[in-house]
Amino acid sequence: MEGTGQKLSKLVGDAYRPDIEVEAAPHGLRVYALRRLTDEVRHVRITNLVFPNAFVVPFGNSKVFIQWHVPVDDEHHYWYMIFYDFAEPTDKATLLAQRLREVSLPDYRPLRNRSNNWGYDPGEQRDLTYTGMGLDINVHDQWAVESMGPIQDRTTERLGVSDRAVTANRRLLLRAIDAFEQGGAVPARPVDATDAALLTGPLAVDTVAPADGWEDAWRRREAERRARSPWAKP
C-alpha cells in the first residue's frame, strides 16, 4: 500500500474491524471503511453502490473493478465484471483466462458450486487457506451468498453497526418499490450518449490519509491519480 511499505492485505488483516460510514450520493451510496493505523494516520477505503445493482470497488492504489448483477429470474442473475487501471494497460488476456478457468462454457456457470460444496477441501483448510476453497476470493463471496439458499428469510436477521451499508441499501430499495407502486418514476438516471460522455466516477479509492482531514485528502488523491493517468486526465 502506497506510503506504508506494507501490503494492503496485511493492513486490512491487522485492522480487521474498520469503522463503517455511509452517505447518500447521486449514484446511490458511498461507503467508507476507516481503519486506524496510528494516532495520525488512517487507511481509507471507499466503495460505491450504483443503485440498484452495481458495486464499484477499489483494488489497491490504481485499480478499480465493478460488479454488475443483472437479474434473470427470482433466483438467478448474471454477474458481469468491469475492470480498469488508472496507471497501466490492463492485461485482458490474462484476466479472461483466469475467469474462464472457473466456469463451464458456453453457459458460464461456476465450476465451484453447491453441488460440489464450492470445492471445499479440509486438507487445504488445515494446511493452506482459511476457507479451504482455493485462493479465488470470488468463490468465497459466491459461497457466502449461495449457501444461504435462493431466497433468504430476512425477518430473522439481526443486523449491526458493521451492516450500515446493507440497511441503507435496503431502505433505498424499499423506497424505490413504494414509489414505483404508486406510479412514480423509477429512480434511475437515464442519460443520452452526450451526457454519458461527461460522467466520471463514482470515485473508488483505497489510500492512506491523515486522521485529521481525511475527508479532503482522499479526494485530492483521486484527483492526483486521474491527473497522472494516460487516459483519465481531465
Automatic annotation (TrEMBL):
InterPro entries assigned to the protein according to its UniProt record, in alphabetical order: LigXa_C (IPR045623)
LigXa-like C-terminal domain span: 17-186
Superkingdom of origin organism: Bacteria
Protein name as catalogued: LigXa-like C-terminal domain-containing protein
Originating organism: Phytohabitans rumicis
Higher taxonomy: Bacteria, Bacillati, Actinomycetota, Actinomycetes, Micromonosporales
